[in-house]
């Protein structure tokens, strides 16, 4: 069984920083793209940033130059460094990953989410 677990969320003042982590565990054979998404109250879930297994990244326009996605393939972990946070970044942040497991083949998995609150 494969699972993703996020951590690192919390309450921060505007202009502050947070670092989110997402660890994949279980019967993993390979991980392709990993990504961070967010969902604010009353809004649809949106992509924040993605990273391929060879390090190519993509960012939403709203977070470019403020957020940095990275990954440690040896640890099956993705990170999201969030700087210069704004109140509009407040949301539940979710990690996802395309994972090849020994049992189910390629599947897309989601974490349970971690809450980020930015106060003004």
How does this model look, in words?
This protein is mostly beta strands and 120 residues long. The chain has no helices and 11 strands. Strands 2, 4, 5, 6, 9, 10 and 11 form a 7-stranded mixed sheet that branches. It is elongated and about 45 Å long. The N and C termini lie far apart (41 Å). The model has no long low-confidence stretch (mean pLDDT 97).
**Could you tell me the radius of gyration in angstroms?**
14 Å
How far the N terminus sits from the C terminus, by CA atoms, comes to 41 Å
Spans with pLDDT under 50 lasting ≥5 residues? none
Backbone shape:
elongated
Question: How many E-type strands?
Answer: 11
Order of helices and strands: EEEEEEEEEEE
Largest sheet: 7 strands, mixed
What portion of residues is helical?
under 10%
Query: Structural class, from secondary structure content?
Result: mainly beta
Beta-strand residue percentage? over 45%
Mean pLDDT: 97
Number of helices: 0
Summed up:
Helices cover 0% and strands 61% of the residues. With 120 residues, it is an all-beta fold. Strands 2, 4, 5, 6, 9, 10 and 11 form a 7-stranded mixed β-sheet that branches. Strands 1-3-8-7 form a 4-stranded antiparallel β-sheet, with no helix packed on it.
List the helices and strands and how they pair.
Blueprint: E1 3-7, E2 10-13, E3 18-25, E4 28-39, E5 46-51, E6 57-59, E7 67-72, E8 77-82, E9 91-101, E10 105-110, E11 114-119
Parallel strand pairs: 2-11
Antiparallel strand pairs: 1-3, 3-8, 4-5, 4-9, 5-6, 7-8, 9-10, 9-11
List keywords for this structure.
single chain, 120 residues, mainly beta, seven-stranded mixed beta sheet, four-stranded antiparallel beta sheet
């Amino acid at each position: 069984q494969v699972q993703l677990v996020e951590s690192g969320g919390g309450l921060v003042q505007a202009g502050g920083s947070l670092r989110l982590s997402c660890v994949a565990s279980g019967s993993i054979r390979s991980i392709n793209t990993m990504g961070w998404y967010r969902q604010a109250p009353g809004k649809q879930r949106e992509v924040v940033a993605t990273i391929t297994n060879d390090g190519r990244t993509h960012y939403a326009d709203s977070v470019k130059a403020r957020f940095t996605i990275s990954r440690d393939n040896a640890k099956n972990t993705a990170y999201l460094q969030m700087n210069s946070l704004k109140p509009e970044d407040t949301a539940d942040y979710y990690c996802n990953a395309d994972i090849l497991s020994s049992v189910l083949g390629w599947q897309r998995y989601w974490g349970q989410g971690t809450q980020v609150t930015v106060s003004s």
